[in-house]
Design a protein that fits this description.
Elements: H1 5-22, H2 25-39, H3 41-67, H4 72-85, H5 95-111, E1 121-122, E2 125-126, E3 132-136, E4 139-142, H6 143-159, H7 168-188, H8 193-221
C-alpha cells in the first residue's frame, strides 16, 4: 500500500543525480538520508513537542485511570478532554513515520529491481545484496541489520515513557516495544544492503536529532 511509482522514480532520479556528483551509490544513499531528514525536520520538531507534552500530562492521565478504574467510557472521555485542553494530538508522533514509509518502500523496490547496477558497491558489500561481513558454518553475519536493531533499541529506550505504576497493560506495551528491534532485525536480515544502509543512517541521524530537539523543546517548556 505504500508503494507509489512516482516516488520510486523521484528516489531513483535523486540517487542517480547524487551518484553523478559523488561517484558512489553508497554515498548517494547517505546524502539522500540527510536530505530526507532535513525535509522532515519540521515534522520531527512537532513530533517531539507532542511527545514532551504527553509526558507532562501523564500524571493527570494516571489520576484519571485510578479515579475511574473500570469505567472505560469515562476514562476515554476525560483523557480526550485533557488532550484537547493541552492541544495534543496523540497520533501526531506517527506522521513522520508514515511520511517516510513510501520513501523506504521506494528504496526497497529500487534496490530489488534492475534499476541499480549489480556492480554498485559501498565499503565491502554490494548494495543490491545483503552485506555479509563473514560466514560461520554457512550462515552469513550481516552487520547492517544487526546494527540497525541495536540502534532501534537505543531509540526505543530514549522514547519510552517512564513507568508510572505497575500496570500490566503498561508493562506489556513497553515489553512489546522493546521486542520490536529484534523483530525488525529478523525482517531486515535478508534485505538489500542499500536499504539497510539507508535505515542505519536514518536511525543514527534520528537519535542525534531527537537529543537536540528534546533539549530544545525542554528549554522552551521550562521558560
Amino acid at each position: 500500500m505504500f508503494r507509489i511509482q512516482f516516488i520510486e522514480n523521484m528516489v531513483l532520479s535523486l540517487l542517480e543525480y547524487l551518484v553523478s556528483i559523488l561517484g558512489n551509490y553508497g554515498l548517494a544513499i547517505l546524502a539522500t538520508t540527510i536530505i530526507v531528514k532535513i525535509l522532515l525536520y519540521p515534522l520531527s520538531v512537532k513530533q517531539e513537542k507532542s511527545m514532551f507534552k504527553m509526558k507532562l500530562i501523564q500524571p493527570q492521565i494516571d489520576e484519571i485511570n485510578k479515579k475511574y478504574k473500570g469505567d472505560k467510557a469515562t476514562i476515554s472521555q476525560k483523557t480526550a478532554e485533557i488532550y484537547k485542553e493541552n492541544k495534543i494530538n496523540p497520533l501526531g508522533g506517527c506522521l513522520p513515520v508514515l511520511v517516510q514509509l513510501p520513501i523506504f518502500m521506494a528504496l526497497y523496490f529500487t534496490f530489488t529491481s534492475n534499476a541499480i547496477p549489480d556492480t554498485a558497491t559501498f565499503l565491502w558489500f554490494k548494495l543490491s545484496s545483503p552485506d555479509a561481513l563473514f560466514t560461520i558454518h554457512n550462515f552469513n553475519i550481516n552487520l547492517l541489520p544487526i546494527l540497525s536493531g541495536v540502534l532501534m533499541f537505543v531509540q526505543q529506550k530514549m522514547q519510552a515513557p517512564s513507568k508510572s505504576g505497575d500496570s500490566n497493560v503498561e508493562n506489556s506495551m513497553q515489553n512489546a516495544m522493546m521486542a520490536l528491534p529484534l523483530l525488525m532485525t529478523f525482517m531486515f536480515y535478508s534485505f538489500p544492503s542499500g536499504v539497510n544502509l539507508y535505515y542505519v543512517a536514518n536511525t543514527v541521524i534520528s537519535i542525534a536529532q531527537q537529543k537536540y530537539i528534546q533539549h530544545k523543546v525542554a528549554k522552551e517548556f521550562n521558560k
